[in-house]
Amino acid sequence: MDISNILNKAEKLASDQEKLEYLGHYIGEHIDSLSPKEFILLLTPLVDISYRLYQQHPSLETLGDYTVAITKLAEYLINDDQGWKAKPLLEKAQQLLDEQPEMEPYQQWRYDTWFQIGQCYYNNQRRQQAKQAFQKALAIATSIGIDIDDCHYMLDKIENPMLKYDPIEDSKEYLDVIDEVERKIYDQIKDEPRFMGFCFRYWTLKRTILLEYGIEWRSPAIMNPRVHFD
Questions:
Q1: What's the pTM?
Q2: Which residues of 5-16 are buried (b: 16+ CB within 10 A; e: fewer)?
Q3: Neighbouring residues of 146: CB distance < 8 A, sequence distance ≥ 6
Q4: Cβ-based burial of 22 (10 A; exposed 0-12, middle 13-18, buried ≥19)
Q5: Amino acid 196: pLDDT
Q6: Which residues of 205-215 are buried (b: 16+ CB within 10 A; e: fewer)?
Q7: Rounded average pLDDT over 139-163
Q8: Calpha distance 104→78 (Å, rounded)
Q9: How far are the Cα atoms of 170, 198, 207 from residue 166, in angstroms, in the given order?
Q10: 3-state class of 155 per DSSP?
């Protein structure tokens, strides 16, 4: 079914709770067939709906629905090469974490949310932000006695990456401009087909734009000359 028809049908439902359940059910039923762009179309109103429900009926359940919607939308924006749009969403999730009490009923939610934030930052190649999020998740997991293997696994991936990357990616000068750079890249390539070897087109464009900001960046291909990329 066309996504616009799903959204129109949801909009006609009487209550926000019905809209939330309808859209959530549709996503769950079609999770393996939806593209990142389709996820974004469905999750964008879901964030607004879950926010209204949280404002109307503040509870751990509505807070959980809201933060899951936020981090899922961030995840699919990153998957669609729109990582700069994920930044304010992840910052909002962190603000919600800061606002909630560090009480036992909230600790599982706090762990889940920090871990989801960490995964988003990691997938968006913001390694230091990811490290901080996973460290927070690890501290919570340790304090409440839940499994810590996932946190250690992700932290190890950050500390011991399989591929080398340019250390400038962890610098403040790079992080201060990379969202704007990635937006410019997206504007130029959003309609281009993702053919074999497209990564080289992306990296060349990224290097060119970063040079405009006075940053000389080395691509994964340069950093890993023995690795074949396609």
A1: 0.93
A2: ebbeebeeeeeb
A3: 108, 111
A4: middle
A5: 85
A6: ebeebbeeeeb
A7: 96
A8: 32
A9: 8, 20, 12
A10: helix
Give residues with Cβ within 8 angstroms of 100, minimum separation 6: 63, 106, 109, 110
pLDDT, tens digit (0-9, with 9 covering 90-100), for 1-32: 689 999 999 999 999 999 999 999 999 999 99
How confident is the model over 40-66, as a mean pLDDT? 96
Cβ burial of 140 (10 Å; 0-12, 13-18, 19+) is buried
Ranges assigned E (strand) in 57-203: none
Give the mean model confidence (pLDDT) for residues 41-48.
96
Distance in angstroms (rounded) separating the CA atoms of residues 200 and 120: 24
User: What is d(CA 17, CA 21) in angstroms, rounded to the nearest whole number?
Assistant: 6
Interval 148-164 mean pLDDT: 97
The first and second tokens of residue 152, run together, are: 């250690």
pLDDT at 1: 62
Q: Which tokens hold the place of 41? A: 């179309």
